[in-house]
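Summary for the funding panel

The consortium committed to producing paired sequence-structure records for every protein in the target list. Below we show the first two records in order, beginning with the earlier of the two.
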Amino acid sequence: MGSLFVTGLKSNSSKNVASALTAEELVERLDLEKAHLNSNNGKEVFHVPVRTFGSYKRSLLSISGNGNSMAVLLTYPNPEDQRLFYITDLNGNLLKEVKIGDDGKELPASPTSKKSSIAGKSDDLCEEVVYETCSSGQHSFETGNAYQCEFWHNLQGGTPPKLFKINGICGGTGSGGGGTPIGGDGSSGGHPAGGSSTSPVGGGGPPKYDFTSADCVQNLDCENCNIPGDTNNDCKLSYDEAIAFNNNPCEKTKGIINNPKTKTAIDDMKNQAVLPASDPNSGEIGYKFQADGTPSTKIIGGAHNVNFGDKTGYAGGYHNHTLEGIPMLSPPDIEQLLQFVLAQGNYGNPSNAFMGMVAPNGMHYVATFSGNYNDALISFSQQDLNNFTDNMAMRKGMYNPSTPNGFEKLFFAILNDMSLNGKVNLQRIESDGTIKTIIKNNDGTTTAVPCP
C-alpha cells in the first residue's frame, strides 16, 4: 500500500476509535479485494471499503502528497444511494455532510453540515477536490450510467460521477487538515507521476482475525454507524439532530478531552498545576489545539498567565492554574476564548472555539462559546480586564468559596460583568473523567448536570 499506512496509527488498540488501531489491525477490517489506488501528479489516492457489521456502507479514503498524508472515513447510510454521505476523521469527529447533485457535483452545504477543520497557518488553507468514483468515457451523467462505475480510471474522459471537496493537503507543504494524518512521505509508491490507477490493489487472502460484532470499533465497523449526533441510530442526521449536535456542549467537550491527541498535553498541565511555588519550574504553561486535537508546542507562561499568541489555525487553548491561583477560569481566560472564536471566523465554526483550565485539585474546566461571531467582537482594554480580575478576587475574599459550586458562581458573575451572560457554556471535568455541564440558576447558584 505504498506510503499510505505508516506511523500515524497507534501502536496498540483501545478499540474505541479507528485512530487507536495499529496499521495491521485497521487493514484486517478493510475489504482489500475491492480497494483501488490512484496516482496522479505526485499524489496517491487510496479508496477501500470497510467490512462493517451494519447495513450501511463505509469506506476509507486516504490521500498522500506534498510530504503529508490524511485519511477520512466516508459513510453512506444507504449503500445504494451514493449521493448522501458523511465524512468523519479516524477519531470519530464529524467533518462534513456531503450531498451530490444530479450533475455529479457537491451541493451547497446545508445546516446539517459541519465545516471541517484546517490545520496550519492561514496561507496553507486549501480544498482538496476528490473524484470519489470513476470517470471513464463510458460512464457519465449525460449517458445516465454514472453510478455503474465504482472507481475512477481516467478523469479526462466523461463526466466525473462524484466530485466533492474536503479541506486537504493540496499545495505547498502545509500540515493538511480535515482528515487524520496517518504518516508517510507522500511518495507515489512506484506509480508514475503522470497518472495511473490500479484496479484493485488488494488481495492477500481472507482476514487474519475472525471478528465478531463484539470486537467492533465504534466509529469504524459496528452495527450502528455511530455518526456523531445521530441520536436515533438511523445513520443519518436530521435537521434537528444536526442543530442539537452543533450546539451540544457535552459533545464538544467529549471531543476535546477524549481525543488521544490532547491527552499528553493535558496530562502535562495536570502535573504542572501541582508544583509548589518553591519549585523553579512552577507557574503556568499552555497549549493551543487544532480542531482535530493536534497540540502546539508547549507555551511557557508566567506565575499566573499564559500568552497564547497567534491563534490562526487553532480551535482553542488549554492552560493550568497553580496552587496559589483561583481554580476557575479568569476574566483574561474568557477574553482569550473570544479571540479563539474570532480566529475561527474566516474558515470555521465559531462555536468550535474553547478555553480549558486545569486546576490543582485534579479537575479541569472547559468553556465553549454559544454566541455568534458578532457576539465575540466585544473588546476589553487591559484596564477592563484588570477591573474584572479585581472584582473576582474581591468576591472570592468576601464569600471564601471552598467548593466547585462556589467558584462556578464567581465565573458566572464575571460573565455578567463582561456582558457575556448566556453566551458562554461551562463544563467541569471531574478527576475521574466525568463531564458535568454547569447551569446557572435564577438565584445565582449553580447546578452540575452530568453529560449522558
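The next record, for a separate protein in the list, is shown here:
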Amino acid sequence: MGAFGIVNRLSLFIVMICIGLNQGMQPIAGYNFGARKYDRLMQVLKLAILVATCITTTGFVIGTFFSVPCATLFAKDSPELILAASRGLRVVVMMFPFIGMQIVSTAFFQSIGYAGKSILVSLSRQLLFLLPALLILPHFFSNPIMGVWYAMPFADALASILSATLLFLEIKRFKQKAAAERLKIEG
C-alpha cells in the first residue's frame, strides 16, 4: 500500500502542474470562443497541449530514469518499499507523454461550454477505463499487483484516445467556423 501512496503523490505532482496550466488557459479559450476568434482559440489549445505534453513528458523521463531517487524521497529506510514504488512508478508513467492532451482537453471543453464532453473525458479515465482494468488486468499477471500497476497506463491510453478523437472532431469544426468567419470579414 505504501508504494501506491508514493507513486500517487509523485504522479499527482506532475498532474497538478498541468491543472495549473489549465487554470490559465480556460479564461483565454473561453474569451476567444465567445468572441468567435476561432484561429486564436486553436492557437491557445495547441500551445496548452504543447506545454502540458512537455510537462508530462518530463514526468515520464523523471519517473522512468530516476524512479529510485524519487521513491527514496518518501521511503529512506525501507529498501523493499523503494523497490516496489520505483517499479510501480516506471509502469504508471508509461503513458504520461500522452496524458497532457487529455488533461488540457477536459478544461478546454469546459471553457467553451461543452460540459458533457468535459465530463466524459474527465470521468473516462477513472470510471470507464480504470475501474474495469483494475478488476480484469490482475488476472493476467502472475503477480496481481503488476496488473493493478498496468491498469493505470492502460486507462490513460484509452482515455487519451477518446480525448484525442473528441478534440480532433472539434478542431475540424472550429477550422470550418474560422474559415466562415474569415469569409464574412472579407465579403
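Regarding this second record: The CA atoms of residues 127 and 155 lie 9 Å apart. The chain has one domain: 2-186.
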